Amino acid sequence: MILFVSDMHFSKSGDPAREREKERALVACLRAHRDEVERLYLLGDVFDTYVEYPSLVPKGFVRFQGLLAEWTDRGVPVAYLVGNHDPWHLDYFERELGVRTVDGALLEPLCGRSVYMHHGDGIHAEERLYRWMLPVARHAASTWLYRNALPGDAGMHRRRRPRAHGTHTPAGTTRLAGGRIPQPRRVARRAHLRALG
């Protein structure tokens, strides 16, 4: 069985109970067909809004993401064709979950035929403004500006920097075997005073 799913629009801004129920229903459906599905295609707008940063991904819906990882670990190919609500992926789905992400159309050989897949936004859009804005919104320069003009990733990067470089040694410590320990004499003295204490 080849399964196609699209337009779940999982949203952190929606009613939490409703969104959790949407996720639960999809996970239950996929689990019900666990042993029959040979391939899974997610045809866009899985999330209502998805903006991934180099160090951060949008939180939520981890049960669904965990199921995707479980399936790809078992060897089930999963492809995710991004939609107009969730196009700003980097490498999280591919690197962490094993899901192939596709920006645009996909032509895939299935069941002896070539099957054309696309999320479909903008193909027959009659509004000129929408057709004009779509490539602008998905352009690499636009996404770079968005990610770098807004501080979504800045805090995480700053928090990781001191640990990554490890150049600061607090006063009264000694580096030994690549790590830091307090001065041995001072530790022994304190331990002796506590024992007397």
Describe this structure in a few short sentences.
The protein is α/β, with parallel strands linked by helices and 197 residues long. Helix content is 41%, strand content 17%. A 4-stranded parallel beta sheet has the order 1-2-3-4. It has a two-stranded antiparallel ribbon with strand order 5-6. The protein has a two-stranded antiparallel sheet with strand order 7-8.
Topology:
Layout: E1 2-5, H1 16-32, E2 39-42, H2 62-73, E3 78-81, H3 92-97, E4 100-102, E5 106-110, E6 113-117, H4 128-138, H5 140-149, H6 154-165, E7 173-176, E8 179-182, H7 184-196
Parallel strand pairs: 1-2, 2-3, 3-4
Antiparallel strand pairs: 5-6, 7-8
Description:
With 197 residues, the protein is α/β, with parallel strands linked by helices. It has a single domain, classed as 4-Layer Sandwich (Purple Acid Phosphatase, chain A, domain 2). Helices cover 41% and strands 17% of the residues. It contains seven helices and eight strands, in the order E-H-E-H-E-H-E-E-E-H-H-H-E-E-H. The protein has helices spanning 16-32, 62-73, 92-97, 128-138, 140-149, 154-165, 184-196, and strands at residues 2-5, 39-42, 78-81, 100-102, 106-110, 113-117, 173-176, 179-182. The strands form three sheets. A four-stranded parallel β-sheet has the order 1-2-3-4. The chain has a two-stranded antiparallel ribbon with strand order 5-6. It is globular. The model is unreliable at 162-178 (pLDDT under 50).
